[in-house]
Amino acid sequence: MQKLTVLLFFLFTALFLSAQTPSKKILAIFAHPDDEQSVAPLLVKYAEEGVEITLVIATDGRLGVNQYNDYEAGDILAAKRREEMSCAAETLGVNLIHLNYHDQLKAAEGFDGHIPHVQQLILDLKKIVIDIEPDVIITWGPDGATTHMDHRLVGASVTQVFVSQTWSKPMDLYYFGIPSDFLPDENSKTLRGQDRIYLTTQVPFTEAHFNQAYRALLCHESQYPAAVVANIKKERAKMGLTLFLRKFQVPEKIESSLF
Prior knowledge:
Elements: H1 2-20, E1 25-30, H2 40-48, E2 52-59, H3 75-92, E3 95-101, H4 110-132, E4 136-140, H5 149-163, E5 172-176, E6 178-179, H6 186-192, E7 193-194, E8 201-204, H7 207-217, H8 226-237, E9 242-247
Parallel strand pairs: 1-2, 1-4, 2-3, 4-5, 6-7
Antiparallel strand pairs: 5-9, 8-9
């Protein structure tokens, strides 16, 4: 009886401490519906471990016409891609915030269209960071993985929010990266790659995480038919079961010279 009492005491103590310890939070911020695929195995991995994950997609995907669909750019395609994004988020096991910004962030409308649009995006992202209070933020680096203007601008917007103030809760910012040695030619390495010396966060995941990530990509059927997903998965498998990230490093001292 005494042993049972002691056992129950330790059990309830562990449960109490677990309830008092807030779960870690990841905030992943990308541009388009389907961009989350770049880090999807990592999202699956941490969701499985009980981390609270919020995925933010900035644009509505209205310009996502390609050889695989018969849609015209506009509201109908945007509605379709919103449904696809909800499907993918559910498959990944993450919370979704899908904003309503236009693809290309109204760049074609010039200063008066683009600047207010992207400035509001930055303010909205700041509010999300304040509300979520993440431990980790993940977004695009300056390469944007494909050099896409939306990828690069969303990543830059997230970075601006991060550096604009000192946050009461410590958090880390990470950029998704592709090791240059995985890319086939010098132009690709320059446009999209990062030397491994910078990719010092290398997160392993399992084949099960990998497979679930690609089940989520199947949700984006307007962009990727099943046969295309199979080819993408095959190519990504060549990089192995590791996700590469570059951590934003906060300077540790004030310097008075460039040299």
